[in-house]
Fold:
Amino acid sequence: MPFALSRRQLLSTGALLALGLTPFPARSSQTVPVPSRYGNPQPFDFDRLRRRAKLLAAAPFEAETPPVPQIVSTIDFDAAQWIKFRADRAICTDGASPFPVRMFHLDKFNGLPVRINVVSAGMAREVVYSREDFDYGDPQLAALLPADLGFCGFRVMNGPNADTDWLAFQGASYFRSAGEEDQYGASARGIAIDTAIDEEFPRFVEFWLQEKNNEPMLTIYALLNGSSLTGAYKFEATKDRGAVIGVSLELNARKAIERLGIAPLTSMYWYAKGDRRYNADWRPEIHDSDGLALHTGGGERIWRPLINPPSVHTNSFLDVNPRGFGLMQRDRKFADYEDDGAFYNRRPSLWVEPEGDWGEGAVQLVEIPTGDEVHDNIVAYWTPKTPVKAGDSLTFTYRLFFRDDEPQAPGSLARAVATRTGVDGIPGAEAHYDAHKRKFVIDWEGGPLTGMAPRFDVTPVVSASHGSISNAYVVKVVGTEKWRALFDLSVEGGRTSDLRCYLRLGDRPLTETWLYQYAVDA
Structure:
C-alpha cells in the first residue's frame, strides 16, 4: 500500500467516500470474481482526482514504508538489467493499442511501489502486480519477493512489437522521452521544492492511463503526494517528432514553501568547449544539455550556456508571463563528442511553453558542481513571485517538447552556436595563463547573418557585472556562414562576473542575447 491511514485520518476518509471515491482503492476483492490481471472497476475522471488530491492535502503526511527493503536493496543496476517485463504481458489500454505499456520492477534506487490503473468508459481498474509479469535472471530472487510487491513505474513502447520506448515515468515525479533520435537525456519532473536549499522530492504515487480513440496519444493522470503539497496532474502525450506533452496540474500546499519550481527540467552538464579546464576525460564534450534558452514575456531571446561551477550557483531571470524556456542540446555534431555509446549528440532538448497567465516570477537555473557524467547537476524551472502559503491551491498549464530544437526557433535572429574561452591577448603571441584574464569567443549563425558578406560595421555589445572588457570585435569566419565575436575580460579573484553580449548593425539587433557566468577562484 502506498499509504497507511491512521485512525485520526478516518474523518478525511469519510469525506472521500461521500464523493464516491475511496482514498486508496482496495486491491482485487476476494468476494467479487474479476479477471486476475485487473482490480475492481472504480469511477474515475480528472475532477475526482482533483478533489481527492485536495482532501489528501488536508490530512497529515505519512511517509511510505518500502516493501521488503532487505531484498529489493540487493537489486542494483546490474541485477535490474536481468529483470525484464514480458512483452506478452504488456498493457494495452484499449485493445489494439498502438503504444503498449510495460512496467518497471522495483530496485535499489526505486524501492517504493506506485499504483497503475487503466481507464475506459469512465471506469478505472488497477493493474495487479504478478511475478508472472517478469522474466527474472535469478529464479531464487523471484521466489523471495512477495505476491503483492507492485511496480515502480511504466514505459510506453514504440509499437506492439517494439523493444524500445518513447516515454517513461519512474522515480519520484520524474518522466522523460527519447525525443526525435531515440536517445534519452534530460528529464522533466512534476514539481521541484526548495531546490539547492533543502530539497524535497514528492512522488507520483498513482497513475491512470487512458488512450484516445486508438490515436497516437496517451492521456496519463497522476496523483502527487509529499510532505509539503499534493497535486493532481493530467498529461496528454503525443508521439510527434519526439514527444509533445500537454500538462495540466493543480497543487495544494500543506505548508509554506520557500522555493516552488513549476515545470522543472533536470539535466547533466560536465564540460564543453567553453570550460575544458574541468576536463578529465578524453572525449571533447560531455553533457545532456549545453544551454538554457529563454523567450521572455517581452519577446527577448536569451541564450545562457551552462557551466560546471566551483560551487552551487542559482541564477534568476525575472519575467512576466514567459513565452518559453528550456534546457537545450544545440550542439548535435557527433565529432564534438566522439562517443558512440552514450551518443550525446542525439540527446533531446526539452522546451516548456507556458499557457495562460503565469504572472510575475522568474526562471531559475541551478548549476551544481560535478566531476563526472553520472549525476544530474542542472535544474531549471519557473518560480512564482507570490510566496506559497499553507492552504494555497495553484493551477498551471503548459506544453513540453522533447525534440532536437525548440518548437519556434527565433528565425529573425542569429543564435549562439558555440562558446569558447582561452588565454587573453593576441592569438599567436606569447601567452601566460591567468584565470583573472580570459578571452571569450562566441560563434553566431542563422537569421540575418545568413548570406551576409563580410563587413566591419557589425559590432558586439558587451558588458560585465564585474571586471573590465577590452579588445571586443567581430569577424566573419572564412569559408562559413558563422560570425565570431571576441573580447577579453579582466576580473579580480574571488569574484563572479555575469557577462552579456549580442551583435548589432547600427541600431538593429542581429542576434539573440548571450549570457554567461564566469567565476574566478580567490
About this structure: Residues 46-57 form the longest helix (12 residues). DSSP finds five helices and 34 strands in the chain.
